[in-house]
């Protein structure tokens, strides 16, 4: 009597394999097709990133390409900015308008274009376009995301976490996470944690909030926000005092034995002793003589000093001992500020050392180092770390991230079995990266790449008169080591005319009028502000997005992008590849479906615009387009001879890394599942910065043009150069109001400094956001499946604050900061730092955006903490504009927010409530339902 059910229905007529874009994980997916439409998405089991695993976001991609919020055609504003009043126009008219605005800028003042892109994955391409346009004002989203993590890692050890490297999941026995939410690299981390826990490895999570990865950790450390660096340096204190550090590793592979000028009266005070060739010098233990660090057979001495010309030179290791053995870093001295008992700090440090040294092991694998010494085995230290935005998005984030890298190095757990491993094209030293360029010539390209790694004051992006060359003030005395730029300061600085006015703001995939900006209300006012002449202070805004986001309403011209299954994308070794520690890998996306709207991939639009503007690299001598579209660029562009965006199937189709363009390259990728992999040889798998086999392999596939072995930089000499300038040395001097800050914060050894920015008393509570695992930035929040998981967001309060404020679940609270106020619903959470509140990020939406109904929960009960944050610090009374950023890199200090909490009468909806904006796509249907095929 049971009903007959078909347990194996026909799912699809065809499977097309490509790369997911529901987050930045870049998993491989099988897109099932029926009647030419997407019916089902699953993980690709052959893919090196996810090996078939797919999360809720990836599966919900089908709803992304059917979203009612998709833009349908180019738009020209016909009402006031912010009204959402547009008319649809043709692509030819849209590109004529854009060319008409941009061509005069390029001919006379290229810096009047500010071109900034959001969380796209084509930054090597967009930066190439901007460089050829000639504007110095280009960057991507890293400045308000995790530049502290990336820059600190590269300056210290040649790479950082996530896209730069990964734990050795096969051998690690203790895994420690700092400040990691659930939206980045989620599938590989979930798979890795599952693998190590299955064999009994221990996981320690350090985060004020216990969700996601921290919820499955064996130990959760609910640290006080912004004190991670202090906690890490205290563990370094404990380890050094106990002698539980890897001295051999420090001597061989780091600059701990490099000699430093110790005479305060010398102009070289604090700088390295070098030979005539510029190489750092050490004392050889065998001979007792000065020797270049890379001399064959040298055994660097961590203890020896050298005196010459009346100056004593001491090794970096001495400086470390002086600093970190100081009682200020003792657990008892930091416990109260960190919110971690001194005994627990000691216990965690002890456990790290126990696993690293007492559970060390050997791999029977021979390798030869850069000094020519052959080692019969590889020593494994099975402790690994991972960290992300949680420790990065503070004004002390750069030094905190550096401290974590130094902790790894002291334990000898970087690039060894069981530890942290780099992913190609990393590791590479900071000196192997370009330096930032800012020389503007009307009608010509910029003199080099916009972004890079400065080595001293001479590399700053300053005009001849000493003023900032860039609109965001990146690479200036305000933020010397910016690396990724300061996207969160672009609109504010452009509006203020500080350092100068711009003509056109050109943005891609950056929701700067809502969840991607600090001071949301203020930014909206800046975008709509008019001068005394009645014209907008920021005269023109061009914006590209696939969806009707809040930012669309503030554009004068909208260039509609495709969804990720409708276009070509290149996940390139020149940019943000999908490599694993054992392999170099890259990938593509390709149009598995054709758009049913009048939209174009943004990268192809840039190719067209570049040709119309006559940009070098995009237009031929006869004026014709160099590339028909982005797919043509991917295949035929060469950054260096034989090196292009894709490393696979080059030349005759068999060459990896280096080779001539192959016209069949994209087809080969498609046939291979959308990706390419070439494996690191076994002998080159570990010790990559110093392993001759790896260095030769990297040259062979085009990651670099010559071997580039280097020492880990525990002591970052470029930072000392900036300090020396602040002390009055050198031709380039900082302004007087920044001297003390540079001297205090730019220590060449990692330090910790307070970041309390309240400006006055009365804001005692830390406030944070986290991105939920089911969403990525704001894109997923209008996804019909995913918004059922997070349709609105409460503010989570710890038990203590709930009781002190007489709150219970479902009550509402007024939350106030030095900048603003919100009124929101609250829920109690016990697994939370007792003086911290938090909420999910980017859930709240503005009425009229994303094709949501006016009474959608995202627009009525959802909210943003952004209204409480400002891109500037509270005024100090000196008349200056102080960026709410890390003083070294300029990363937005999102997580330094402090607030007060008070119970209040429930309003009709979350406050502040903004007026609705008119949507160019209207609202979606009440019920989103369709059937594909029979």
UniProtKB/TrEMBL annotation:
Gene3D superfamilies, per database record: 2.40.40.20, 3.30.200.210, 3.40.50.740, Dimethylsulfoxide Reductase, domain 2
Subcellular location as annotated: Cell envelope
Coiled-coil boundaries: none
Residues annotated as domain 4Fe-4S Mo/W bis-MGD-type: 13-69
Cofactor field: [4Fe-4S] cluster
Predominant location category: other
UniProt superkingdom: Bacteria
UniProt cross-references to Pfam families, sorted A to Z: Molybdop_Fe4S4 (PF04879), Molybdopterin (PF00384), Molydop_binding (PF01568)
GO CC annotation, single: cell envelope
Keyword 4Fe-4S: yes
Keyword annotations of the record: 4Fe-4S, Iron, Iron-sulfur, Metal-binding, Oxidoreductase
Similarity comment: family membership: Belongs to the prokaryotic molybdopterin-containing oxidoreductase family.
Name listed for the protein in its UniProt record: Formate dehydrogenase
Annotated organism of origin: Sulfitobacter sabulilitoris
Source lineage: Bacteria, Pseudomonadati, Pseudomonadota, Alphaproteobacteria, Rhodobacterales
């Amino acid at each position: 009597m049971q009903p007959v059910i078909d347990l194996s229905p026909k799912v699809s007529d065809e499977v097309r394999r490509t790369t997911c874009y529901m987050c930045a994980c870049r998993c491989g997916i099988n897109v099932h097709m029926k009647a030419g439409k997407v019916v089902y998405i699953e993980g690709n089991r052959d893919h090196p990133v996810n090996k078939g695993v797919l999360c809720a976001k990836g599966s919900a991609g089908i709803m992304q390409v059917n979203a009612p919020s998709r833009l349908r055609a180019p738009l020209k504003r016909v009402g006031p900015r912010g009204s959402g009043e547009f008319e649809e126009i043709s692509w030819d008219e849209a590109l004529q308008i854009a060319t008409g605005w941009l061509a005069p800028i390029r001919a006379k003042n290229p810096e009047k274009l500010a071109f900034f892109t959001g969380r796209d994955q084509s930054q090597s391409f967009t930066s190439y376009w901007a460089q050829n346009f000639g504007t110095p004002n280009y960057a991507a989203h890293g400045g308000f995301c995790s530049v502290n993590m990336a820059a600190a890692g590269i300056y210290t050890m040649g790479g950082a976490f996530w896209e730069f490297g990964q734990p050795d999941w096969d051998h690690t026995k203790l895994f420690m996470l700092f400040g990691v939410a659930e939206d980045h690299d989620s599938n590989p981390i979930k798979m890795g944690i599952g693998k190590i826990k299955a064999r009994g490895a221990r996981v320690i999570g350090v985060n004020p909030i216990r969700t996601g990865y921290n919820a499955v950790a064996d130990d959760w450390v609910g640290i006080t926000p912004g004190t991670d660096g202090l906690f890490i340096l205290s563990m370094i204190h404990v380890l050094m005092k106990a002698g539980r550090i890897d001295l051999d590793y420090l001597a061989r592979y780091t600059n701990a034995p490099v000699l430093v000028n110790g005479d305060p009266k010398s102009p070289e005070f604090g700088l390295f002793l070098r030979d005539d060739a510029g190489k750092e010098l050490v004392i050889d233990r065998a001979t007792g003589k000065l020797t270049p660090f890379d001399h064959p057979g040298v055994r660097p001495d961590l203890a020896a000093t050298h005196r010459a010309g009346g100056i004593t030179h001491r090794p970096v290791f001495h400086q470390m001992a002086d600093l970190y053995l100081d009682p200020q870093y003792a657990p008892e001295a930091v416990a109260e500020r960190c919110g971690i008992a001194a005994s627990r700090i000691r216990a965690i440090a002890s456990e790290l050392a126990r696993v690293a040294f007492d559970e060390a092991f050997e791999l029977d694998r021979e390798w030869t180092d850069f000094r020519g010494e052959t080692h019969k085995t590889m020593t494994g230290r099975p402790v690994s770390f991972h960290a992300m935005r949680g420790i990065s998005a503070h004004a002390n984030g750069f030094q905190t991230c550096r401290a974590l890298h130094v902790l790894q190095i002291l334990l000898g757990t970087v690039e060894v079995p069981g530890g942290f491993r780099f992913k190609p094209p990393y590791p590479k030293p900071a000196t192997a990266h370009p330096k930032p360029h800012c020389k503007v010539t009307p009608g010509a390209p910029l003199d080099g790449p916009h972004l890079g790694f400065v080595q001293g004051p001479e590399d700053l992006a300053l005009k001849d008169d000493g003023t900032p060359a860039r609109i965001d003030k990146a690479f200036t005395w305000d933020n010397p080591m910016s690396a990724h730029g300061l996207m969160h300061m672009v609109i504010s600085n452009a509006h203020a005319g500080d350092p100068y006015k711009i003509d056109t703001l050109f943005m891609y995939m950056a929701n700067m009028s809502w969840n991607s900006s600090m001071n949301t209300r203020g930014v909206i006012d800046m975008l709509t502000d008019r001068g005394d002449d009645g014209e907008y202070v920021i005269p023109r805004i061009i914006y590209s997005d696939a969806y009707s986001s809040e930012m669309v309403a503030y554009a004068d011209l909208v260039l509609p992008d495709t969804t990720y299954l409708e276009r070509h994308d290149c996940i390139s070794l020149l940019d943000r590849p999908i490599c694993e520690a054992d392999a170099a890998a890259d990938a593509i996306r390709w149009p598995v479906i054709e758009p049913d709207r009048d939209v174009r991939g943004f990268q192809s639009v840039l190719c067209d615009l570049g040709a119309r503007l006559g940009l070098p690299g995009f237009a031929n001598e006869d004026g014709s387009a160099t590339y028909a579209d982005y797919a043509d660029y991917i295949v035929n562009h060469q950054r260096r001879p034989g090196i292009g965006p894709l490393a696979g199937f080059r030349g005759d189709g068999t060459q990896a890394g280096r080779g001539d363009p192959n016209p069949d390259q994209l087809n080969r990728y498609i046939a291979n599942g959308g990706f390419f992999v070439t494996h690191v040889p076994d002998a080159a798998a570990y010790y990559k910065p110093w392993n001759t086999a790896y260095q030769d392999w990297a040259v062979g596939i085009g990651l670099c043009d010559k071997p580039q072995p280097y020492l880990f930089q525990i002591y970052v000499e470029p930072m000392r150069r900036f300090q020396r300038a602040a002390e009055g040395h050198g031709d380039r001097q900082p302004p007087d109001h920044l001297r003390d800050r540079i001297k205090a914060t730019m220590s060449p050894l990692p330090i910790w400094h307070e970041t309390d920015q309240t400006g006055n008393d009365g804001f005692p509570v830390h406030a944070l956001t986290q991105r939920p695992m089911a969403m990525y930035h704001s894109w997923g929040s209008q996804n019909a499946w995913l918004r059922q998981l997070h349709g609105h967001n409460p503010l989570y309060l710890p038990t203590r604050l709930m009781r002190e404020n007489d709150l219970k679940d479902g009550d509402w609270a007024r939350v106030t900061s030095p900048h603003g106020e919100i009124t929101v619903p609250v829920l109690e959470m016990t697994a939370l730092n007792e003086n911290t509140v938090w909420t999910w990020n980017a859930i709240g939406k503005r009425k009229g955006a994303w094709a949501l109904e006016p009474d959608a929960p995202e627009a009525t009960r959802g909210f943003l903490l952004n209204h409480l944050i400002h891109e500037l610090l509270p005024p100090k009374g000196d008349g200056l504009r102080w960026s709410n950023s890390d003083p070294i890199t300029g990363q937005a200090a999102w997580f330094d927010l402090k607030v007060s909490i008070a119970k209040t009468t429930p309003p009709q909806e979350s406050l502040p409530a903004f007026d609705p904006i008119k949507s160019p796509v209207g609202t979606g249907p009440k019920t989103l339902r369709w059937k594909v095929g029979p």
